[in-house]
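Service request form, structural biology core

Requester: graduate student, group of Dr. S.
Request type: structure prediction, single chain
Budget code: on file
Notes: please return the result as structure tokens.

Sequence provided:
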Amino acid sequence: MTIQSNDPVWQPQIDSSEDISIDIRKMLLGYLSHWKWFLISFVVFMASGYVYIQTLYPQYKVAASILIKDHKKENSRSTQEELDLFYKAMEVENELEILRSYTLLDEVVDILNLQVKYAVEEGWRTREVYGDLPVKIEIIAPTEELFSRSFTLQFDGERVIFDGVMYPRNALITESFGSIRISSTVQEASPIVWDNEKPLSVTFIPKNSLVESLHKRLQVSLVKNTSVINLSILSPIPKRGEDFLNHLINVYNKAAIADKNNMAGITLNIIEERLNFVEENLQKAEQSVEQYKRQEGITDISAESSLFLQNIQKNDAELSKVGIQLDILKQVEQYVLSNDATSAPAILGLSDPTIVALIAALNEAEAERIRMLLTNTPGGIRVRAIDDQIKTLKGNLIDNIHVLRRSLETTQRNIRLESRRMESVITSIPKKERELVDITRQQEVINQVYIYLLSKREETAISFAATVADSRIVNAARSTPLPVQPNKRMILMIFGIIGFLFPIVVLWLIDCFQTTLSTKDELEKRLVVPIIGEILFIEQSNKLVVINKNRSKQAEQFRTLRTNIEFMRADGGVKVIMITSSVTIEGKTFLSANLSAAMAISNKKTITLDFDLRKPGLHKVFGIDNNEGLSNFLSGQATLEQVIQISALSDNLHFISAGYVAPNPQELMLGNHLTLLFEQLKEKYDCIIIDTSPAGLMSDAMILNRFADVTLYVVRQSCTPKDRINFINELSRSKRLGNMGIVVNGIKNEKWHGYGYGYGSYKYYAKYYGIGEEEQEEQE
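Core staff response, request fulfilled:
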């Protein structure tokens, strides 16, 4: 910083190219000055992070994978699938949602009894227990109270103590919390014991919330470019997580097999019903043939009768097949019109490929709709699309059924006509033979139908037995050897970063809400008046720091201020220096006393005037009395010689105290005695220093401004309000206080950066002046 001697109001010259680097350096220095708080904050937050980690339960990742036989990726069917008449390819994407369906999760919760959780205290935390318990608790009929609190469980040989009440083994407990059953998992002759001495804590979880939690935690994903599905879940107990995934896969496979066996089971039931009926008729027919032959003594019929009999039997067999197809068509039509998706009809005997294909497509669409409803609402887009497809298929199926029925009815009429013709021919056969032909014909027709149904039953039974799940376990559930959560390093790193940033945020908030000046930067950015001096804060009883041979930091700063003042008025020099401030606690009296001493030591005859007539205090610093002073002179009660006092510090330093506290100080300063005072003092003294009342409170400084060559405006770190800076700028712009310079008082090193105009560390300053270590310690 340089001083322009040709301009009474100079400004510091700063290289703008260094602004950014200077700001960063100052910012870092400002934060580093609070390094103790950073250290404390870091240690506290790291300790908090460690405690937080101890409160978390370790989570293990349990994973499994299964292979889905996807028809999109398979071009052929296996032999087993060929045996399965009801085989239907699966959509891998649909299976992802089925595996996460609430229906399957609900079943797994029941199988593993996950609603009941056991825990035991270990120090200041609890540990969950799974398996290896001598009892099993089942929820029978719960109330809200059962899920609202935890219960204690202890063991006493043949009895259990639940919630403080003793019960026998395998007891059904019914209390206000509902009904539960405590079943023993050990043999009846063995006592109920547990190794841990502390009681178990039992917690019951509502099924809906548990299933919802499992649904959210279960991760199901498809391996890219494959039909392999990965399943994973986080669990604090690895064994429980493994059991959960393994049972989920088993339940999923059983549901898939049950879905496939549904059609085969319906078909088998229909065949069995038909077989029972046909078998009864066949037995009756065989008994009739046997009885007729025995009664009539017939052993054989003629070749002609046999030929007619064979033709009639053939027609009757065809007529029976047509009748079966018409019955099946009737069942299919009833199924289509009934909208019942759970009782699909059998298609045995239907030879029309169009109807067979439509029925197969309808069955597949119905099954697909059932699977969709596991993961979608009935009004969903996908469900509505499959509903439209089912409606179209049913319409086409009804049309084809009508066409095929007409064709079968025509065939049935033709066969009957042919049979009647043959029967008319048989009338020419002798009566006994004709009657035997009729009875034998009925037997053969029923026998052929019976053989046909037997073959279809075997085919269906083989298909039913060959039904397998369309998935295969690739990897059974396995947990990681070490917990994957919590990530201790990440948590500690986050807490460490927070511990480092917390002081920064606090300091920033303090700065934001700080109403007084705290840094040099904020003063320079808002101030248009130059800063000509900076005085450090040092806690000491003696307010006079500028004395002979004193080379303290404050003393040198006052000497620097004295030099800078000389440059503020190069044309004729500085004679009268007025010192004021915004408020009373900024140290203008301290500055006036020490600046006077600095001027006197430089061989200038100096006088200091205490114009703070309302609240005088300068006489206390110099240790002189205040009996007579400026109030006495301005009121004409004393002469100038009577009020001037000589300081014991130096013969060059004189002093005029404020005198008595006048009721009208401004009226005294507006009189002619004030002008006379300065005219006489300028003739006798080289430097006149005026300590006036605060300009921010009184207008005394504006009245005295006409006599001052330089006005020093004192601001103090952490004392001067920020809003007074605009007031200072306005005083300078309006010339109410002329040739102003700012002196910053009470600077604390840790906040005020760049103090001392380049003196740097006092360590080097002391070394430069040869101050000894003992003296240095005293002054610091």
